[in-house]
Amino acid sequence: MLSIKDLHAGIDEKDILKGINLDIKAGEVHAIMGPNGSGKSTLASAIAGKEEYEVSKGDIELEGESILEMDPEERAHNGVFLSFQYPVEIPGVSVTNFIKTAINQTRKAKGLEDMPAGEMLKKIREKAELLEMDRKFLSRSLNVGFSGGEKKRNEIFQMAMLEPKLAILDETDSGLDIDALRIVANGVNKLKSKDNAVLVITHYQRLLEYIVPDYVHVLMDGKIVRSGGKELALELEEKGYDWLKEEVGA
Amino acid sequence: MSLKDKLVSNHIVLQESIDADSPIYDIRNEAIKTFEAEGFPTKKLENWKYTSLNSILKEDYGIFPSKEAALDFKDVKQYFLNDVDTYKIVFVDGVFSSYLSDTTHDGIDVCTMGAALTKPKYKQVIDVYFNKIAKGDAMDSLNTAFAKEGAYIYIPKGKVAEKPIQIVHFSTGENDVMMLQPRNLIIAEENSEVQIIERHQSLTDKKVLTNSVTEIYADKRALVDYYKIQNDKLEASLIDTTEIEQHKESIVSVHTFSLGGNITRNNLNFYQKGEFMDSILKGVTIIEGKQHVDHNTLVHHITPNCESHQDYKGIFADKSVGVFNGKVVVEKEAQKTNAYQSNNNILLDDTATINSKPQLEIFADDVRCSHGCTIGQLDESALFYLQSRGIGEKEGRALLMYAFANTVLSSVKIPQLKERITKLIAKKIGVNIGFEV
């Protein structure tokens, strides 16, 4: 599904990622953990195509094809989805109208007609229920005045609507209380299938109790310094990152 | 002959054509004297520092139309709000068109200044209200000197205008380059309500200069909503002065949508005379090329316990120039005033300019006054968010511009008008975003 090869990327000529290798197959859940400033969000942004992150070396392939030259919207059309740590507020554009625009633009890029209004409504209703979202919520301006939990639920709602091949969840657990965390994780788990993959980026192990990863990778100073199974997350929770820092001499 | 000289000599002709007993004969004579002494405003004046009229004063404008131009409704239908029932007061090259209009005298007066200034039954009202709020600067005075035609709206005590009123001024080019000077008077008595939509529309590629003055008098608890659609041709320039006097517990809002035209200067002046009032001034400006839009506002808080809200948004592309000069005066007696002013701008190109100048003069000590001004580009991280959802860059930018302007649209009370303006904005931005509002 996703193959990252010796990826070097940075901002303003400062290298943040210093040679990342990562392979994610369809049906898998991977987690990237690491201390603040290790490059986690940079990796998420580089995959989604944020312009200011310059890739100086290496490649990112989605289903065997390099996506480096693609605009963010083209990557989205090809099945990449990023759940933002800090979703943007857009006054005057309702959640419903926003998601309609996003879906129909994606369909247009694929040469498809707009989704029929009835089908769209049914899908919106279905996915809103999955995320336990109130109907009123859908007519509110996108992210304007949303609580932390509402914002993240709205992100996963969009993911449910867009049905990406690869979903990247960037610090989706930050700002969530335990109930919201459960709803969000439950949503992600229900969307998981053998045909898609999830990359969870998190500082803490907490979210991984709900979205159980097949693989855990530890990112430090722009490199993956250790990979393992879900037990690695528990070990990090228990011991913190310092012991690993010493071990790898980072 | 300069335009000024031409105007002064034409004024003599005008005065000779009307009855010397007319209630405004002397007012016109005084006004032309003021204009003659002051002349057209120049950039030397503090209030005109960023707007020069030089480029539009060189034309040999016709002052009075010589021919009557006829218009077919189907050819101008697009300039009206059609999906809601309205009264209409329509002028073609400055002349009232009864054919295109839909006026009334049923409980309220929706008719012409031409009638109000000449018919004896209106004399008493004209004596009390005409030219009483206007400040009498050069452009005001020039309009007063030539005041002949425009909209006259009188909503008596306790009456509600059941339908919005559209005031539309067309210029056809039939009379070559024209200078138009419409004069509107709106009187909303105690507990009355009225909604007005005003538009100046040129139908020709010939140059047009409009110097319009509107006086609005809102008595106790009157509710007046005034919407200005400025989406004219690039050959058309507009100097639009609106003077508003408000009394106790009245609420008056003026929304100005400036999307077209060559040079547009808006003078919007509120005078608050009574307690517990609200004055609302909102504007959206989206211009490009070499267009120029100047908003010059004044809110004069004279009495205590009142509010004013100003919210102006501007999006400027290419070499366009915007000006926001917002003055708030809070007199010593006007304690407990809440005055808010905000002016936010987006410059899409390095060559675009915005001159934003808030002016607060506060003489009372127990007031809340705030003002904020921002100038920036579109938020790139917000754009990335939209793109990451599959929305193309062009549509994403349009969506963000729409969102930016939306706080102003949200207070438009006529749904059909709101929809129309949304579409105008989408068209102006050049993208059909494909979402309903």
In short:
Chain A is α/β, with parallel strands linked by helices and 250 residues long. Chain A has 9 helices and 12 strands.
Strand order of the largest sheet of chain A: 6-9-10-3-11-12
Relative strand content of chain A: 25-35%
Q: H/E series of chain B, N to C?
A: HHHHEEEHHHEEEEEEEEEEEEEEEEEHHH
- DSSP strand tally of chain B: 20
Overall form of chain B: globular
CATH level-3 fold name of chain A: Rossmann fold
Range of helix content of chain B: 10-25%
Name the structural class of chain B: alpha/beta
Radius of gyration of chain A: 18 Å
Could you spell the SSE succession of chain A in H and E letters?
EEEHEEHEEHHHEHEHEEEHH
Arithmetic mean of pLDDT of chain B: 93
Overall form of chain A: globular
The count of domains of chain B is: 2
Can you characterise this structure?
The complex is a heterodimer of chains A (250) and B (437). Chain A is α/β, with parallel strands linked by helices and 250 residues long. Chain A has a single domain (2-248), classed as 3-Layer(aba) Sandwich (Rossmann fold), CATH 3.40.50.300. Chain A contains nine helices and twelve strands. In chain A, the strands form three sheets. In chain A, strands 6-9-10-3-11-12 form a six-stranded mixed sheet, sandwiched between helices. In chain A, strand 1 and strand 2 form a beta hairpin. Chain A is globular, with a radius of gyration of 18 Å. Chain A starts with a strand and ends with a helix. The model of chain A has no long low-confidence stretch (mean pLDDT 91). Chain B has 437 residues and is an alpha/beta fold. Chain B folds into two domains: 3-273, no CATH class; 379-437, no CATH class. In chain B, 23% of the residues lie in helices and 37% in strands. Chain B has helices at 3-17, 25-38, 54-57, 73-76, 113-118, 123-129, 138-146, 380-387, 393-409, 415-429; strands spanning 87-92, 95-96, 109-112, 151-155, 165-171, 178-180, 183-188, 193-202, 208-218, 223-230, 236-247, 251-258, 263-273, 278-287, 292-301, 307-316, 321-330, 338-347, 353-362, 368-376. Chain B has a ten-stranded mixed sheet, covered by helices on one side. In chain B, strands 3, 4, 6, 7, 9, 11, 13, 15, 17 and 19 form a ten-stranded mixed sheet that branches. In chain B, strand 1 (87-92) and strand 2 (95-96) form a beta hairpin. Chain B is globular and about 70 Å long. The model of chain B has no long low-confidence stretch (mean pLDDT 93). Classes of the chains: A alpha/beta (250), B alpha/beta (437). Chain A: GO terms for molecular function: ATP binding; ATP hydrolysis activity. Chain A: Belongs to the ABC transporter superfamily. Ycf16 family. Chain A: It comes from Dokdonia sinensis. Chain A: Pfam families: ABC_tran. Chain A: InterPro entries: AAA+_ATPase (IPR003593), ABC_transporter-like_ATP-bd (IPR003439), FeS-cluster_ATPase_SufC (IPR010230), P-loop_NTPase (IPR027417). Chain B: InterPro entries: Fe-S_cluster_assembly_SufBD, SUF_FeS_clus_asmbl_SufBD_core, SUF_FeS_clus_asmbl_SufBD_sf, SUF_FeS_clus_asmbl_SufD, SufBD_N.
